[in-house]
């Protein structure tokens, strides 16, 4: 089926996703998922000179995840729109819009496929490790975080065991609660509060990893079953025999390895590198952003050849 027709069929709000809770993950060979996102900006006055950055579509390949198709719809004509790849391998959209009267919509539909098996983790050249060891303004370790890094480093000499210990410690140290932090809250501030959201968990874990000399990077994406976006961490460990680094995904918010139910959008040093939507404009008043998302599985293929489709896929 042509891509344009496929979009029109698979992007309907009424699509019924496969319930990921009923999947026998130990038998799964491959999955295909669909992400629908809408970023709606409402402005009290007309705005001018709008320059916008979107990080909402994944790279062509990330380990066992492959981008199959995507479509970006902008409600106001753009003077210029370009797609590029940043230094971390992320797909970035840059748009310039001369004027917006009252509202602006970005609608994104993305289809990804994942192979579910061990191996084929993202590989990073060893000479890139320094990017993910240096602290950032959001992940600088204060005395408390540095102390935790030292203590855990003494207890766990092996890098993989240390990474898991840091993941476990972060999960136990924090309470998941909205309204306590913002995306500008630092790791040290969030830990002092003792509560926050997934980006806070990720920043705290990154701060401890880097203070313990473990290169690690921030991951922005989606977790099946959650209404909003999600964040977790990839710890970069030496790959066997190659000398490169292998990304091991860990989710400190849920104290687990980030595997089958996770869809990666972008990676960076912290949230600031991968913010889904950001930009600037000229106006006398700020705008208001509303975000909505639906994400789920449309196809599940088992090792024995059995294939389960969502109702939309069965109509193809």
Structural overview:
It contains seven helices and 18 strands. It is an alpha+beta fold. The protein folds into two domains: 129 residues, Immunoglobulin-like (Sandwich); 151 residues, C8orf32 fold, CATH 3.10.620.30. The strands form four sheets. A six-stranded antiparallel beta sheet has the order 3-4-7-1-17-18. The longest helix is centred in the middle third of the chain and has 15 residues. The N terminus is likely disordered.
CATH architecture heading of the largest domain = Roll
Question: How many DSSP E strands?
Answer: 18
CATH class of the largest domain, please? Alpha Beta
The DSSP helix count reads 7
What is the number of domains?
2
| CATH topology tier name of the largest domain | C8orf32 fold
Overall average pLDDT: 92
Rg over C-alpha atoms, rounded to the nearest angstrom: 20 Å
Secondary structure class reads alpha+beta
Q: Give the proportion of residues in helices.
A: 10-25%
Report, as a whole number of angstroms, the end-to-end distance. 8 Å
Beta-strand content estimate: 35-45%
Overall 3D shape: globular
Biggest beta sheet attributes: 6 strands, antiparallel
Strand order of the largest sheet: 3-4-7-1-17-18
* Element string (H = helix, E = strand): HEEEEEEEEHHEHEHEEEEEHEEEH
Poorly predicted regions: 1-12
Please specify the SSE layout and strand pairing:
Layout: H1 3-10, E1 28-42, E2 47-54, E3 61-62, E4 65-74, E5 80-85, E6 91-100, E7 103-115, E8 123-124, H2 143-155, H3 159-173, E9 175-176, H4 187-193, E10 195-196, H5 198-211, E11 216-223, E12 230-238, E13 245-251, E14 256-257, E15 262-268, H6 271-274, E16 277-282, E17 288-302, E18 307-309, H7 311-314
Helix pairs in contact: 2-5, 3-5, 4-5
């Amino acid at each position: 089926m042509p891509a344009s027709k496929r979009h029109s069929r698979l992007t309907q709000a009424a699509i019924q996703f496969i319930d990921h809770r009923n999947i026998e993950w130990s038998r799964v060979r491959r999955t295909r998922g669909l992400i629908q996102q809408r970023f709606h900006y409402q402005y009290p006055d007309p705005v001018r000179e709008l320059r916008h950055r979107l990080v909402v579509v994944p790279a062509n390949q990330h380990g066992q995840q492959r981008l199959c198709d995507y479509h970006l719809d902008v409600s106001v004509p753009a003077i210029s729109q370009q797609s590029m790849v940043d230094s971390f391998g992320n797909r970035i959209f840059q748009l310039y819009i001369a004027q917006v009267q009252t509202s602006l919509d970005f609608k994104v539909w993305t289809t990804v496929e994942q192979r579910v098996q061990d191996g084929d983790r993202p590989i990073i050249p060893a000479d890139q490790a320094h990017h993910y060891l240096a602290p950032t303004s959001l992940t600088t370790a204060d005395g408390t975080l540095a102390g935790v890094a030292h203590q855990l480093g003494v207890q766990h000499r092996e890098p993989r065991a240390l990474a898991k210990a840091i993941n476990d410690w972060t999960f136990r140290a924090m309470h998941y609660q909205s309204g306590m932090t913002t995306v500008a809250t630092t790791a040290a501030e969030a830990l002092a509060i003792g509560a926050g959201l997934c980006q806070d968990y990720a920043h705290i874990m990154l701060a401890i990893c880097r203070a313990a000399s473990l290169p690690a990077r921030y991951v922005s994406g989606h977790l099946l079953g959650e209404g909003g976006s999600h964040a977790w961490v990839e710890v970069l460990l030496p790959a066997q025999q190659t000398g490169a680094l292998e990304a091991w995904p860990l989710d400190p918010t849920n104290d687990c390895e980030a595997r089958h139910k996770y869809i990666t959008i972008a990676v960076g040093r912290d949230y600031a590198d991968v913010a889904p939507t950001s930009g600037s404009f000229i106006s006398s008043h700020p705008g208001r952003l509303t975000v909505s998302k639906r994400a789920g599985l449309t196809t599940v293929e088992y090792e024995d050849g059995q294939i389960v489709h969502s109702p939309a896929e069965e109509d193809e």
